[in-house]
Amino acid sequence: MTRVEQAKLKSEYPVVIIGGGQAGLCVSHYLKKANIEHVILEKEPELTHAWRRKRWDNFTLVTPNWQCLLPEHPYMGHQPDGFMKKNEIVEYLDQFIEKLNPPAILGVAVQHVEKVADQSFVIETDRGTTTAKQLVVAAGGYHTPIYPKLSSALPENVTVIHSEQYFNAEQLPAGNVLVVGSGQSGAQIAEDLHLAGKKVYLSTGDAPRCARFYRGKDVVKWLFEMGYYETTVKDHRYSEEVRNSTNHYVTGRDGGRDIDLRQFALEGMQLLGRFQDYKDGQLVFRPDLMQNLDMADATYNRINAGIDAYLAENGIETDEPASVYEPVWTAQAEITEIDLVAENITSIIWCIGFRPDYSWIDLDLFETNGYPKHDRGITLDPNVTFIGLPWLHTWGSGRFLDIAKDAEFVAAHIKQQLDMPNSRLSPVIADAVEV
User: Fold this and answer.
1) Dihedral of the CA atoms 85, 89, 92, 97 (nearest 10)?
2) Cα separation of 336 and 343, whole Å?
3) Are residues 165 and 310 in the same domain?
4) Are 97 and 25 in contact (CB under 8 A)?
5) Is the torsion defined by CA of 385, 386, 388, 390 positive or negative?
6) Are residues 344 and 370 both part of a single domain?
């Protein structure tokens, strides 16, 4: 890991960035270029902590390496169309950190933020208090793991973990495993366990899926050429609701491939509908397995059909003809209850997401669901910005693809705010933010 020469906490800063992941680092990059003094406060003992400690061993990027475009640090390896593994991602980030040499303080937890009469922010940490004129929240949105409410307590001998705690099959006890949730993490963790020889019970949800390759190219490359990654929240057909959408499941493992849950079922994985409850020794599921699979396949085919239309409209020929996915497996009956003991399920992995926790920010900036109200990261208080959230501005936001663009915009806004301290709202966003 790249060593970071830690700064000392001063009594005041023009800008404080809370969070030392790639989002906060990208903002730091542009602030340094603008010669704006700032500091990154990171609660963990290392920068980019989640990539290092909260990914399973066989984790790979889902998007191809050529989309890794951190500022002045594009992917320069030999596999632009490949998918970096966990250790390669960490190495890529370490190289960026070494180039940046950010002003960071590690192992410092921000406990409370409020605004005082002179319009500065008072930031209380476990190492003392500082103030800032501009606050950048780069702490992400995945804070509190979600666990369902159960009618009965699970037996103490059952190992229960969340997706962020899973690393490999060896950490689990002998016996079978239930994975709850079929989004990107759930589907890939189920595959990881399946390939390791575990008997997997997978509780599905409404996550969509897409092909890895189609008509001779990675689907991501087609969608990029079609302009999908430039689609903004405002231009999307679901508008801001898209921020609540579940990502398509697919994998970059072994060079990239589809994740076909029906194929897993043919190979012995037990597929189930959405998890509902645990009661009196019985795991209870909704009778919606086939509905979930059919919906995922419909999205898969719809994306491919969109690519077909794009190729036809632009006269692009490929060696691979158009095709439609046909189900390779269908459930004979919906299973809605299984006995935990009888099925020898000794571990459960919850892959049902996270809730945001910004309770330490004592500012009126949030929706009822806990997410910040913002436009392109700029909140109702123009001196508070957020960075690194999914769909902050485009589909590429929150990913290595567009995080630099988001950070550059935020940094430009901060510079204008600092240059115009008496102006309530920067002209860059005066017409964009609803107040």
Assistant:
1) -160
2) 14
3) yes
4) yes
5) negative
6) no
Question: Does one domain contain both 28 and 137?
Answer: yes
How many angstroms separate the CA atoms of 197 and 220, rounded? Answer: 30
Tokens at 256, concatenated? 């990239």
SS3 of 15, please?
strand
- The answer as to whether 425 is a domain residue is no
* pTM for the predicted model, two decimal places: 0.93
Structural domain contains residue 205: yes
- Could you read off the pLDDT of 229-250 as tens digits, one per residue? 888 888 777 667 666 777 899 9
Is pLDDT above 90 for 111? yes
Query: pLDDT higher for 369 or 79?
Result: 79
Asked if residue 4 is part of any domain, the answer here is no
On whether both 68 and 180 belong to a single domain, the answer is no
Q: How large is the average pLDDT for residues 299-316? A: 98
Q: What is the average pLDDT score of the chain?
A: 93
Domain that holds residue 190: 145-354
Q: Which amino acid would we find at residue 20? A: G
Per the CB < 8 A criterion, the answer to whether 60 and 28 are in contact is no
Q: Is the domain of 223 the same as that of 275? A: yes
Same domain, 106 and 188: no
pLDDT tens-digit series, residues 159-209? 999 999 999 999 999 999 999 999 999 999 999 999 999 999 999 999 999
Q: Are residues 188 and 335 in the same domain?
A: yes
Residues 266 and 380 in one domain: no
* CATH number of the domain bearing residue 295: 3.50.50.60
**How many beta carbons lie within 10 A of that of residue 252, not counting itself?**
22
Classify the C-alpha dihedral 48-50-53-55 as positive or negative: negative
In-domain check, residue 199: yes
Identify which of 187, 247, 319 has the alpha carbon closest to the alpha carbon of residue 63: 247
Q: How far does CA 14 lie from the centroid of its chain?
A: 29
Intra-chain end-to-end CA distance of the chain, in Å: 43
Task: Enumerate the H helices of 101-226 as residue ranges.
Answer: 184-195, 219-225
